[in-house]
Amino acid sequence: MIPPLYDAVSQCNRCGYCLQACPTYVLTGREAFSGRGRNQIFRMMLEGRLPDPRQAQEALSSCLLCGACTSVCFAHVPTAAFVLEGRRRISGQRGSLWVRWLFYLLEERNRTFRWFLRGAYFLKRLGLSRLLSRLGVFRVLGWKAIEKAEEHIGEVPLQFLSEILPACSMHPESDSDGAGCAPRYYFAACGSNYLYPSVGLATWRLLRPGEGVLRYASHGCCGLLEHHYGRLDRAQELAKSNIQFFEGRAALVADCSSCAAYLKSYPQLLGQEPDWAARAQDFSSRVKDVLEILPLEERARSSRLGDRRRERVTYHDSCRARHGQGIWKRPRELLQGLPGVEFVELTEPEWCCGGAGTYAFVEPELSEEILRRKMENVRKTAARWILTSSTSCIMQLRWGCRRWYPEGKVLHLVEFLSGYAAGAGMLGDSAARQAR
Amino acid sequence: MAENLLELKRCFPENRLLLGPVDLLTYGYDSALDRALPEAVVLAESAQEVREVVRFCLRHNLPYVARGAGTNLSGGCIPSRGGVVLSTAKMARILEIEPSKRYAVVEPGAVNLHLQKALEPYGFYYAPDPASFRVCTLGGNVAENAGGPRCLKYGVTSQHVLGLEAVLPDGEIYRLNREDSGPDLTGLLVGSEGTLGVVTKIWLQILERPACVRTMLAGFSGVDSAIQSVSRVIASGIVPRTLEAMDQLTVRAVEEFSPAGYPVEAAAVLLVEVDGTEEETLQEAEKIERICRAQGAFHFVLAQTEEECERLWEGRRGAYAAMARLAPNVLVEDGVVPRNRLPEVLARVQEIAARYRIRVGLLFHAGDGNLHPNIIFDERNAEETQRVKLAGYEILKACVELGGSISGEHGIGSDKREAMRWLFSSATLNVFRRVKETFDPRNLANPDKILPLPDGKASGVSRPHGEAAERLFQGLREAASQGRRVSIRGFGSRLPSTPSPEAPSVPAPFAELRAPAGEPEAPSVLETRSLDRVLDWDRENYTVRVEAGISVASLREILAAENYFTALAGAGSLGGLIATKAVPEIRDQILGMRVALGTGEILELGGKVVKNVAGYDLAKIFYGSWGWYGLILEVILKLYPRPISVAPAKNQVPFSPHLWHRRLKAALDPAGIFSLPR
Question: CA A23 to CA A319: how far, in whole Å?
């Protein structure tokens, strides 16, 4: 049973142990920008002690939702959930008409959405979007976030993942690969699908030694973005449709930790709906972040790389992997066990990169400060490869590398491992190009 | 206020001067239950900016409260009267680390953990480790005189603060060093909870990391046998680095949430840690095991690996966490008693808990006699909250009755102001008030903290004098009534033989107080040699209360005959040793003091407990006072089962009082009865 919000927020006893975990507090020194501060603000909202709830806007919208505060909290007070609920109460549906229209396309008119993206990507490839940005067109239109996004997104794919992967239809009764091993379904996160298909392909290669072990069936969005923009109803609808779609025995794998963590949080999302709570629980228990199931030992052995080269590698924890799912040891163990790989631990590996979905676009100043600190730590490792597990982190870290650390290459962990398994080629120039 | 704020707006950018309603609300709480609303919050970045704010507040008669991380457990950083909150969050730099000279310099907003981390590469560490060390600021630690498990061996914050830079309430920046000659103002500011000024820079003593640390856990079927073991360990000459205890309820709560391998059937467990060389620690660990087993410990583990050690500590650290999960609020009470009274106070706590129908998990720094009953409740339930508060008060009362104090390390803040009356006499509280007025005549620096309102009556008892003390006190009163000056003399061993040219006469403002013009008459001498008795030698608790005129040599002899030791050296009287700063080591061995003032008041400071942060640490200003503030009648000293190394006593010359020394003189000895020796 999920405790009602007021009980949940009252569980914060203001001990303040979360302060130094919160990037926005550490950078600004403002109590309202800390986990404890946001808990108290939300509590005051519920108690009707804020003269005008809109006054809480700044404190709530500056939250990265990284969950670092909850990780260090003794009572595991879920600050991010309060922030989302607070945002929803203040502005109902957050985001401009323009954002809502994009969501509509993404979910309801996916073909149109893809054509639209392709158009945007075309502009990007030709360098026209850059030109528009320079000319200040986006700013004139009030699209500051688009301007930021244009700047951050380094490269765009020619083909979306969903168009590359062979789609199958769902047949729960055929959920067996013949060898008694239940197949898994690949859940294509939006990031892997529309921005970084190479991540999805790497997952595909790594987890699919034989036919039928990993399958892909065209499915809907996980609902994370909707939820973050305050559209709880819509997020719940998406969750239900995913639960229905994957009902049965099928296990799911997602390779974007944000997406995986969100799929795992469906029980909280639907906890108040008696008809759905158990089904959500069942669904979530079948979701795996790709980090949890990487079959690594064999990869290491089959590698032809051996000890010939030492590739210096560091690892940035995606907040949704570390704080959202508690996954942080395994990726390190994997990397430390690879011959030819020198793993260097990052200072403050759990410090958010500032990407945080669309945070980088809507809170550019704070995001940049957060990223700068991250990149400073990355630089100190002198690592060539910066590995992570969320597509939002990839985008943000690549942007950071372009600005402050051009010698660094950012990859999803699966991309690195897939290339590693394939031999030295991955670590050569083609990979470097891929990780631009 | 609104029009005045324009002035601040000119000095501070928008992101460092917070005026929005939500921002203000978030600076109105700390970790305790009190709430208030400031009118502005300033995130200062330098001492100059702090001074600007203090001056602004002086100009407009606005109160100000310095705030670090706000992890305070006693309401100490609540802006009770509104005004300005001065946050040190942006003054978080570690300015200097000087391993060869064993000190570090930090800004007040620097986080305790960050200093620890910065010291690691040098092989050093900073001893005080309050539970909130991951987030609490060193400025906050100074304000509260914070402790922590390691303080058993290494002492509380006050022992580690070498010097301070502070903006005092007159709006000026001062630098204070505890080695400066004269009364120790550094020691007075530590633990003053921001009521005497705002610290802007801190010089801290740092220590070399021990070669080896060993951690062990013992489980007992009775609380008494656990406490007995604690006493035996201390008496055996071992000074453990930490000596922590937890009761059954706490152990069970911990094991339920995150098993750390604690024995759930134990009535009490002890977590002991020793440090030193490989060999020493092993021997000590074996000795501790023997002692615990002899007292009936049925469970004893010595951690063999770093992981095992970490796991044992997880259990201790998890104690608060486990309680925090059980209910929305945890009141972490903070009382302290002489170590050997722990079993009694624990029984009292259980009785109080049953009477008030509250759930209490007991967690204590057993070595220090410092107990933290963790009481869980839900502040939204007003009736329950009231019961919890009352129970907390009763626990504190029990501590006072058993010869202890109302705070070992959390401070008084606004929560325990009333409890100050149970601990101190009216006279002592009045002197505290005069000290506060001296520093802050307009009562703007963190008002309404520490001191109870002057109306009610204090119940703190003043013990009767001994015969010799009574005679001296009479003499003092007589001199006072006749307007005669006095100077104090023990054995005369440290008095300058010829009037030294630097030795100052009584400063001008006080000279005027004395009527006779022309040749000032020589002060009459108060001989303290008759104050030579050992009053209360608590062998089990390792404390001794003695009269201050006792000869240092004979005190050493008396103590050493039974294998008790303290920081004594040289000749002359104990009072003289303290008043002349002849042996710096003694500063931190003084647990309590009884002082006769020229006003006829008797000050009763501290007690038989090794940790005590209730009220101003006034004993510090008699240390180095050369008899200028008052007559030290009695001293309570901390004892050890082993000799401690002390440098030979140095002969100092009387100090030349600076501005603040003189201001304090007006508070403690307004008629100027006491004169410096010539």
Answer: 12
Interface membership of A424 toward B (CB under 8 Å):
no
**Residue A51's closest chain B neighbor by CA?**
B21
Nearest to A17 among B30, B132, B328 (CB): B132
Q: CA B354, B360, B364, B368: dihedral to nearest 10 degrees?
A: -40
Q: Return the amino acid letter for B666.
A: A
DSSP B121: G
Query: Does B135 contact chain A (CB < 8 Å)?
Result: yes
The reply to whether residue B30 touches residue A14, judged by beta carbons under 8 angstroms, is: yes
Q: Look over chain A and give the mean of its residue pLDDT values, rounded to a whole number.
A: 80
Which residues make beta-bridge pairs with B94? Answer: B106
- Convert the pLDDT of each residue in B503-557 to its tens digit: 444 443 333 333 344 455 678 888 899 999 999 999 988 999 999 999 999 999 9
Q: What is the pLDDT of residues A139-175, one digit of tens each?
A: 666 666 666 676 767 677 777 777 777 766 555 445 5
By C-alpha distance, the chain B residue nearest A39 is B26
Q: End-to-end alpha-carbon separation of chain B, Å?
A: 52
Nearest Cα to Cα of residue B359 among B463, B247, B465: B247
Q: What is the ipTM of this complex?
A: 0.90
Residue of A nearest to B70 (CA): A16
- Report the distance separating Cα B597 and Cα B576, nearest Å: 17
H-run or E-run covering B59: helix B47-60
The order of strands in the sheet holding B40-43 is B17-18, B40-43, B84-87, B64-67
pTM of the model: 0.90
Distance from CA of B393 to the nearest CA of A (A): 20
Please judge whether B22 and A59 are an interchain contact, meaning their C-beta atoms are less than 8 angstroms apart.
yes
Which residue shows structure tokens 């706000």?
Answer: B70
Q: How far apart are CA A232 and CA A235, in angstroms?
A: 5
**B-chain residues near A78 (CB < 8 A):** none
> Where in B569-643 does DSSP place strands (E)?
590-596, 602-606, 631-638
**Bridge-partner residues for B213, per DSSP?**
B275
Substitution target in B135, B316, B330, B410 with the highest count of A β-carbons within 10 Å is B135
Separation of alpha carbons B674 and B626, rounded Å: 10
**Amino acid at the residue A291:** L
CB neighbourhood size of B520 (10 A): 13
DSSP-derived secondary structure letter, A95? S
